[in-house]
TrEMBL record, chains A, B:
Span of domain HTH merR-type: 1-70
InterPro entries (alphabetical): DNA-bd_dom_put_sf (IPR009061), MerR-type_HTH_dom (IPR000551), MerR_fam (IPR047057)
Keyword DNA-binding: yes
Classification via SMART domains: HTH_MERR (SM00422)
Protein name per Swiss-Prot or TrEMBL: DNA-binding transcriptional MerR regulator
Molecular function GO terms recorded: DNA binding; DNA-binding transcription factor activity
Key words of the record: DNA-binding
Amino acid sequence: MRVAELSRTTGVPVPTIKYYLREGLLPAGELTSPNQASYDERHVRRLRLVRALLEVGRLPIATIREVLRDIDDDSDWGMHERLGRTLYPLAGVPDDPPGPELAAAMAEVDALIARWGWQVEPHSPGRRRLAEVMLTFRELGVGHLMNAIDRYAEAAEIIAESDLRGITTDRAPDDVVTGAVIGTIVGDALQAALRRLAHEHTSVRLFTP
Amino acid sequence: MRVAELSRTTGVPVPTIKYYLREGLLPAGELTSPNQASYDERHVRRLRLVRALLEVGRLPIATIREVLRDIDDDSDWGMHERLGRTLYPLAGVPDDPPGPELAAAMAEVDALIARWGWQVEPHSPGRRRLAEVMLTFRELGVGHLMNAIDRYAEAAEIIAESDLRGITTDRAPDDVVTGAVIGTIVGDALQAALRRLAHEHTSVRLFTP
């Protein structure tokens, strides 16, 4: 298909597509003449992924390039390694060593992980991300809200099981990883929306006569 | 306390505090001389809340003003009404009527709400927010990920019950509502971080020999 059709199919304007091509977020089409290129289904899927990463995930262009490179890496990784390599950079966790306060919070995260028997790599960005959230609660004077963390962990197990079971039914490997990236990012928004509806219902149950 | 001590206590720089005062996000201190004002614990709590809304919730200033006005409204509302009035604007859902595609997705949300027996107001912003997430999944070509929505709803019930039970142990009404606002916003980040850790663990279980 020509770029105009690619635009119609995906709803992404032509100038935006050209911007993605310049930034290396979308592979070049196949040249059919010196001034014309042809695009295929692979470009449609890639465009959708880039939109999810930019608009829903609000990731910086450099991170998106890294994620796309990992998706396209066709080394002989198993699915677990492949998901890890692709999803770790999504967390946007910095490389610098944590300060003493953050390190203490990370030790609490380690205790939680041990309590739940979770197998998580020492360098998993989720550890640091969770520790940062803990510190935010405390800085905001509502550290007691962290008392509920085991209920949150229970809910996370239910969702993770469902998310990962869903993955196995997919097909082509880059499609699987693309689905995992989109599911990770948009799944956060899904969870947040449902939590608000459940809050309202629970508030009716607990706080109305 | 003087503004310098308010800054030291909360970690918010003095020029930022003055900006919040000008924008009406922080009530004026009590004047102790024509050029000096005194601040108290109420200002400390309010500053923490404003930081959570701005930095974690990334809410626009106008929305924050609306949320603060609702928190300060000491009309004789019950807790359920008070939480609803304060938390509804947080969703940032527009007032304009939904188009046909969004309206269809909202009907699917209604079906989910009925299936779970949730009591949710017809004008609850959570309905529209969830419908928008559904459309995003479809536009991104991964509508099948919505098959897992009932597992997400199950997890949301567990978390909502825990969140709302936590609320009842709090004290002063504006403190309760402040805690609910912070918990709603920072709780999303908590859930997202734990989901990633649980993903990693589940991936080890399902995808490694």
